[in-house]
Amino acid sequence: MAITRKELPNFTSRMAFILVTAGAAVGLGNVWGFPYVAGKNGGGGFMLIYLLALAFVATPVLMAELLLGRMGRASPPTALKNLQIEAGRKEPWPVIMWVGLMGTILILSFYMVIAGQAIFYGFEAMTESFHGWTPEDIIAFDAAYKSDILLMAFWSAVFVGLTALIVSSNITTGIELAGKWLTPILFVLLVIIVIYAGIYGDMPAALNFLFGFDHLVLTPGVLLEAVGQAFFTISVGVGAIMMYGAYMGNNVNLPKAVMWIVLMDLGVAILAGLAIFPLVFGEGVDASAGPGLIFITLPIIFAKITGGGVVAVLFFMLLAFAAITSSISLLSPTVARLEEAGWKRPHAAWAMSFAAFVLSFLTIFSFNIWSDYYPLAVLGFDGLTAFALVREGVSNVILPVVGVTCALIVGWGIKKERVKAALPMQETVLFKVWYFCLRYIVPIAISALFLNAIFGG
Ligand code: PFF
């Protein structure tokens, strides 16, 4: 039996909703992903494209997804089923959210591996503090971790276990409590590190790198990466946000909440850049060191600078906190769906975590026994490990496809009057811009990027 709309619990306040949802948005993508992607694509120029993608493509979808959740008041597939019936439409709307749910588990499967390493490094920094380690020591340390399948599996399991524990509890004592505390703590930690980086690192070089305009690279690939990063960073396109929309009270002013969530997410991404790059430039190391930036470049710096040991602990704690508030949002939709099927919440949480853990071996093996194995090479995806395929498949396919479908459903599938009443909102300029984005900008932008990816070579 499906849970009826009224039975679903609500977050207790507007503030709680905003903090929890911002916590879902702020994650590894901000701290581990954004500085790397921005660095690789040339700083300020990329930033501009990214801001446009965020404002006119990802943010309108965020608002659409939250609205669909609040209107449907159930797990994402059931919410869309409710809305499809209400709108009297024939197309099978729920199907798209099953794709989304697959996306949540796939993201969780690689998220736990990166977050697991962050927790491991956090403990290492507490006990060993990296102090006096040479760069060779740190490179060897990272390599040793990545070749130890059991150790990687262990820390991934610790992380996903914590996630399951939080999600097992009911909404207000689990997800809400974690988000309400961890999101503000994360901000404080980040600000401390930025101040430290300003004192001990080269802040002007970092500012110039992030905001300077000397090296704009504008290719379709960069555009796709900007849209992909924008979707990933604010968590749209898998149903996690739709689920939180279903827990959102009717008293929440949706456009305002969306604005806060996006600003907090962007703020953390920029602050993360301002925490990392001054140190990177201060030490004269390569800024586009790739994902190794976090687990190799930064520890090398922490090992050298004054107070580096403490900052290392704070930094890896920050990473773990950012990750856990996102991973609980990733686990929530499938758990809610299983609850609708009659499962007990804890059973559902542990079962889905276990499924994600099994899938995490695709990522774990990509760092060792499968590091030279490209599963889809025959289809033209040469050079992509299983981990890269999962990550890029989710970011470049699932998120945009599910996201654009949500935009189409709100823009075209549901009557405009009903949308306005559900928000609730008058036909203001803001409404018109949002609606126009959903109807035209989002579908056109995403179709163009897809066509280019397929035919553009
Ligand atoms: N927004 C998260 C990040 O930036 O790391 C990733 C994410 C979490 C994506 C939850 C999607 C999601 F549903």
Count of runs of 4 or more consecutive helical residues: 18
Distance between the termini: 48 Å
Strand content: under 5%
Give the overall shape, derived from the CA principal axes: globular
Unreliable stretches: none
Sheet bearing the most strands, described?
Answer: none
Radius of gyration: 21 Å
Output mean pLDDT: 90
Oligomer: single chain
N-to-C order of helices and strands: HHHHHHHHHHHHHHHHHH
Task: Explain what the structure shows.
- With 457 residues, the chain is mostly helical.
- Helix content is 77%, strand content 0%.
- The chain has 18 helices and no strands.
- It has helices spanning 14-25, 28-40, 44-72, 76-87, 94-127, 135-147, 149-168, 172-200, 203-211, 220-233, 240-246, 254-282, 292-304, 308-340, 345-366, 386-413, 416-422, 429-455.
- Helix 5 crosses helix 7, helix 7 packs across helix 14 (308-340) and helix 9 (203-211) packs across helix 12.
- The mean pLDDT is 90.
- 4-fluoro-L-phenylalanine binds at residues 24-25, 27-30, 104, 107, 232-233, 235, 238, 240, 326, 329-330.
Question: What does the secondary structure layout of this molecule look like, with pairings?
Answer:
Elements: H1 14-25, H2 28-40, H3 44-72, H4 76-87, H5 94-127, H6 135-147, H7 149-168, H8 172-200, H9 203-211, H10 220-233, H11 240-246, H12 254-282, H13 292-304, H14 308-340, H15 345-366, H16 386-413, H17 416-422, H18 429-455
Helix pairs in contact: 1-8, 1-12, 1-14, 2-10, 2-12, 3-4, 3-10, 3-11, 3-12, 3-16, 3-18, 4-5, 5-7, 5-14, 5-15, 5-16, 6-13, 7-8, 7-14, 7-15, 8-12, 8-14, 9-12, 10-16, 10-18, 11-14, 13-14, 14-15, 15-16, 16-18
4-fluoro-L-phenylalanine is lined by residues 24-25, 27-30, 104, 107, 232-233, 235, 238, 240, 326, 329-330.
